[in-house]
């Protein structure tokens, strides 16, 4: 039978309130002596006491849990981000619930509603873009919220992104400086602001260098079944422009599929490459690829930091009966790796 606050209080001849304050970390704040605190903690450990988190959340208004929604947990980038966010959350006393939307708006909306029903203290999300309505509901409710990797310029929500345009510009300039004139850009999800920023950075570098922006070198891959769609896109590009000398990938996922395409088609990948983010297997498939490495640790640290600020503000607002949450926008720099 699981030990309760009542059991501990009865054994130690203390009130349930005193025991509750000690076990919730409020002993010093409530003026409870160190002797009493140690006595409670030692006896609770002896009984392997586990707090009733549901009851505690009803009393405090907090569950000490955070919800994380990612487009794909299998994506190495997002799995690394999840690991950093989980570590930061744990360090701050929070547990993490992780779900994958699979870039499906209905699935994402369902997850948001489930998280709210489970009373998570805040939500971190890399949104599909088309989920704007549910995001707006969260904003209207002053629900602690941070978007990562992607954001909505028109909505008043805190976000963390990378310097997409600048990173793309610098990578493309490097390819041009290596002598590339016919550079393919492979991209996906054009509805995402961040993907448009990467395309704009690519085009900025070409125009500034006097290289024509050739629409035949633009490859937009439908994200649904992208593994198959990229073959059609690349077939068309190679047919129209046979003398390709470089590739710029707006995401590592497309790079990996392109390397598979080269292998299947018997194409020697004798091109200059650049990519936003990298995968460990690049060391084998394309050791000379130039990359903008995502600041994954900083993304995790800042995501939890921003969300905690909002959770604390929401707690204070509840006391003052206000509904004000300050939004912040953080743009992190990638570290550039020029290998060719």
Draw up the topology in text:
Blueprint: H1 5-12, H2 16-23, H3 34-46, H4 53-60, E1 65-70, H5 76-91, E2 95-100, H6 105-117, E3 122-125, H7 132-140, E4 145-148, E5 158-162, H8 164-177, E6 183-188, H9 193-208, E7 218-221, H10 226-240, E8 246-249, H11 252-265, E9 272-276, H12 282-285, E10 290-293, H13 296-320, E11 329-332, E12 335-337
Parallel strand pairs: 1-2, 1-3, 3-4, 4-5, 5-11, 6-7, 6-8, 8-9, 9-10
Antiparallel strand pairs: 10-12
Helix pairs in contact: 1-2, 5-13, 8-9, 10-11
Could you characterize the architecture of this molecule?
By secondary structure, this protein is of the alpha/beta class. Helices cover 48% and strands 16% of the residues. The chain is built from 13 helices and twelve strands. The strands form two sheets. Strands 2-1-3-4-5-11 form a six-stranded parallel beta sheet, with helices on both faces. The chain has a six-stranded mixed beta sheet with strand order 7-6-8-9-10-12, sandwiched between helices. β8 (246-249), α11 (252-265) and β9 form a beta-alpha-beta unit. 37% of the residues are buried. The mean pLDDT is 89.
Give a short overview.
The chain is of the alpha/beta class and 340 residues long. The chain has 13 helices and 12 strands.
Count the strands?
Answer: 12
User: What is the rounded Rg?
Assistant: 25 Å
Sequence of strands across the biggest β-sheet = 2-1-3-4-5-11
Order of helices and strands: HHHHEHEHEHEEHEHEHEHEHEHEE
Summarize the biggest pleated sheet: 6 strands, parallel
Q: What do the pLDDT scores average to?
A: 89
Rough shape? elongated
β-sheet strand percentage: 15-25%
Secondary structural class:
alpha/beta
Q: CA-to-CA gap between the ends? A: 65 Å
Fraction of residues in H or I helices: 40-55%
* pLDDT < 50 runs, ≥5 residues: none
């Amino acid at each position: 039978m699981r030990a309760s606050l009542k059991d501990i209080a009865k054994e130690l001849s203390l009130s349930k309130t005193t025991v509750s304050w000690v076990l919730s970390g409020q002993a010093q704040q409530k003026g409870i002596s160190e002797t009493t605190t140690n006595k409670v903690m030692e006896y609770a450990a002896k009984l392997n006491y586990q707090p009733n988190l549901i009851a505690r959340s009803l009393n405090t208004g907090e569950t000490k849990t955070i919800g994380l929604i990612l487009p794909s947990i299998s994506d190495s980038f997002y799995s690394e981000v999840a690991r950093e966010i989980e570590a930061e959350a744990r360090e701050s006393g929070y547990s993490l619930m992780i779900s994958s939307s699979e870039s499906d708006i209905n699935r994402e909306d369902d997850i948001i509603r489930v998280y709210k029903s489970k009373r998570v203290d805040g939500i971190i999300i890399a949104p599909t873009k088309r989920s704007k309505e549910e995001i707006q509901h969260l904003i209207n409710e002053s629900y602690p919220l941070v978007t990562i990797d992607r954001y909505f310029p028109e909505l008043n929500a805190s976000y963390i992104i990378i310097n997409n345009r600048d990173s793309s510009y610098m990578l493309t300039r490097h390819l041009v400086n290596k002598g590339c004139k016919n550079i393919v850009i492979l991209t996906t999800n054009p509805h995402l602001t961040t993907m448009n920023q990467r395309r704009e950075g690519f085009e900025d570098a070409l125009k500034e260098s006097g290289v024509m922006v050739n629409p035949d070198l633009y490859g937009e891959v439908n994200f649904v079944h992208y593994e198959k769609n990229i073959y059609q896109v690349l077939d068309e590009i190679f047919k129209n422009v046979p003398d390709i000398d470089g590739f710029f990938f707006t995401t590592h996922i497309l790079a990996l599929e392109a390397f598979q395409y080269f292998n299947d088609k018997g194409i020697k990948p004798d091109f200059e490459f650049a990519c936003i983010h990298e995968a460990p297997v690049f060391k084998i498939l394309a050791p000379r690829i130039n990359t903008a490495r995502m600041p994954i640790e900083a993304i995790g640290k800042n995501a939890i930091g921003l969300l905690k600020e909002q959770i604390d503000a929401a707690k204070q607002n509840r006391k003052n009966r206000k509904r004000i949450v300050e939004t912040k926008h953080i743009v992190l720099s990638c570290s550039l790796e020029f290998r060719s």
